[in-house]
Specification:
- The protein contains 7 helices and 13 strands.
- Strand 10, helix 5 and strand 11 form a beta-alpha-beta unit.
- By secondary structure, the chain is of the alpha/beta class.
- About 40% of the residues are buried.
Length: about 290
C-alpha cells in the first residue's frame, strides 16, 4: 500500500472509506473521503479498495451528497419570493434588483474537500474564497486572510477525531484537531466580536462542540461526537449566506437538513447575510457620463 490509496479498516467492518494520507512504519494516517474523520490504523488492518461504489456506505454517502445539493437548490428557489416583499409593490415594483449573498472564507484541512466545497458555492451563486492549510496552521492563516478578504462568513474545517482510549470528552487534549479549531475561532472573534457581523462555522468529525461554540462560533460540530459529512459545514454556510439579513437563520431547519443532523451540528440564533439592491447593476449607469453609479 502507498500514500493516496483508498482503503477500509477490516476491524471496523469496512464502514468508512479512507484515503492513506501518510505511512510511518506499520501505521497509516487516514483521512475520510466522505466524512471529515482523521484516523490511524495498522497497515495489516487495511483492505485496499479498487471500486468505491462497491461499498454500500460510501455509495449512500454520495447519494446523500447529491440529495443535499438538490435540497439546497430547492430551498434557494423557495427563498426567492420572500427576499424582497417591499419590491413587489410601489413605483419600482417592475425594477430589476441585484443580489448580494454573504461572502464566505472557507479554510479546509483537506484539499479534495475544499475543491468539492468551492464547486458547491459556485453552483449556488455564493461568493467564496477557499484556502487549503493544515489544521494547525489555521489560526495564523486566518489572522492573515481576514483583513484581506473581509468575509461575512468563515468556515473552519478539516479533519478531527477523538484519540484512541480517551474517554474524557470535555478535555481538548482528547481530540486530534479540536484545539486548532478553537484557536482559529478565537482569532476570528478577535477580528470581529459580534456574532451577527461575522458568522463562524467550525469543526469536523467528533470535534469538541462545546469548546468551539464557547470560543465564539455560531455553528459547530459535533454535539454527539459523531462523524459529520464533508458538506455539512458548507450547507450551514450557504444557508447563512442566502438568508436575508433581517431574518434569523432557521437554526432548527438548518440542522435538521444537514446529513449528520442534530448529533452532528449545533449552533445559536444568528442573523442572515443576504441583501438586495436597486437598481440592477447592469442598469446602474449614469446616462450622462456612462459610468457606473
Amino acid at each position: 500500500m502507498k500514500q493516496g490509496d483508498l482503503v477500509v479498516r477490516k476491524s471496523y467492518g469496512g464502514d468508512i472509506l479512507f484515503r492513506i494520507a501518510a505511512l510511518s512504519g506499520r501505521l497509516a494516517v487516514l483521512r475520510g473521503t466522505d466524512y471529515r474523520l482523521l484516523a490511524d490504523s495498522r497497515i495489516d488492518d487495511l483492505h485496499a479498495v479498487r471500486d468505491p461504489d462497491e461499498l454500500g456506505g460510501t455509495l449512500q454517502a454520495r447519494i446523500q451528497t447529491h440529495e443535499t445539493l438538490r435540497r439546497m437548490k430547492v430551498e434557494l428557489a423557495q427563498l426567492k419570493p420572500k427576499i424582497a416583499p417591499a419590491l413587489q409593490q410601489g413605483p419600482l415594483r417592475r425594477e430589476p434588483y441585484f443580489e448580494l449573498p454573504g461572502k464566505v472564507l472557507h479554510l479546509d484541512g483537506d484539499s479534495n474537500y475544499l475543491k468539492k466545497s468551492m464547486a458547491v458555492y459556485a453552483q449556488l451563486g455564493v461568493p467564496a474564497q477557499g484556502t487549503y492549510c493544515h489544521e494547525s496552521q489555521m489560526p495564523q492563516v486566518l489572522m492573515h486572510l481576514l483583513p484581506q478578504v473581509r468575509p461575512d462568513i468563515v468556515v473552519i474545517t478539516g479533519h478531527d477525531g477523538v484519540l484512541k482510549h480517551r474517554k474524557d470528552y470535555q478535555n481538548l487534549s482528547s481530540y486530534k484537531n479540536s484545539v486548532n479549531f478553537v484557536r482559529a475561532v478565537y482569532v476570528a472573534r478577535e477580528y470581529e466580536k459580534h456574532r451577527d457581523s461575522l458568522v463562524v462555522v467550525a469543526g469536523a468529525c467528533q470535534s469538541h462542540f462545546e469548546a468551539i461554540l464557547s470560543a465564539g462560533a455560531n455553528f459547530a460540530s459535533s454535539p454527539g461526537r459523531i462523524m459529520i459529512h464533508a458538506l455539512d459545514p458548507v450547507y450551514v454556510a450557504v444557508r447563512a449566506a442566502l438568508t436575508p439579513f433581517r431574518d434569523t437563520i432557521d437554526i432548527a431547519d438548518v440542522i435538521s437538513h444537514t446529513i449528520s443532523g442534530i448529533q452532528g451540528v449545533g449552533g445559536i440564533e444568528t442573523m442572515g447575510k443576504y441583501r438586495i439592491g436597486l437598481p440592477s447593476m447592469k442598469n446602474a449607469i449614469d446616462k450622462k457620463t456612462g459610468s457606473l453609479i
